[in-house]
Design brief:
β4 and β5 form a beta hairpin. The protein has helices spanning 2-16, 32-45, 56-62, 78-87, 116-119, 130-147, and strands spanning 23-28, 49-55, 70-76, 97-103, 109-114. A 5-stranded antiparallel β-sheet has the order 1-5-4-3-2. The protein is α+β, with helices and mostly antiparallel strands and 148 residues long. The chain is built from 6 helices and 5 strands, in the order αβαβαβαββαα. The chain is globular. Keywords: Signal. InterPro entries: DUF302, TT1751-like_sf.
Length: 148
């Protein structure tokens, strides 16, 4: 009886903790702003739409707090995102795609994003969906172009 209650408790706690999606990190030798400029140029050059560019450090400054260089680019392409959302509208919680550029405590600049397959796991989106594979490929190419 006690073992059953303990097991039930562990299962309840583990269910309440969201699984972290795989984060893909690509190093950049450029500063955050230059890396993000290059990423934005690559995204726009590929025909995708940039919806927003968020400067987290500037936001922190507005409330008299400090934060290291960090910018988020939010972008997408309806040709890829729409089929995913047709499979499960909850995918709209994760789309459009996002890539974070930031400088870590050691001074290394990174581009980081969630693997779309992991990000959409648990939804009614087939794991082998062509659009998801294309998102993975696009993110790989765009971030590689931005860090060259």
């Amino acid at each position: 009886m006690i073992k059953s209650l303990a097991l039930a408790g562990v299962i309840a706690v583990m269910s309440a903790i969201p699984a972290a999606a795989d984060l893909i990190k690509i190093p950049s030798q450029k500063p955050v702003i230059e890396t993000m400029d290059a990423l934005q140029a690559a995204v726009e050059g590929a025909g995708a739409t940039v919806f927003a560019r968020v400067d987290h450090a500037a936001g922190a400054q507005k409330v008299d707090l400090s934060l290291g260089d960090a910018q988020l680019l939010i972008f997408g392409n309806p040709k890829l995102g729409t089929p995913v959302m047709q499979a499960d509208l909850r995918a709209g919680l994760f789309l459009p795609l996002k890539v974070l550029a930031y400088q870590d405590a050691e001074g290394q600049v990174w581009l980081t994003y969630e693997d779309p397959a992991e990000m959409l796991a648990g939804l009614d989106v087939p794991a082998d969906a062509e659009a998801v594979a294309k998102m993975q490929g696009a993110l790989g190419k765009l971030t590689a172009a931005a860090t060259e």
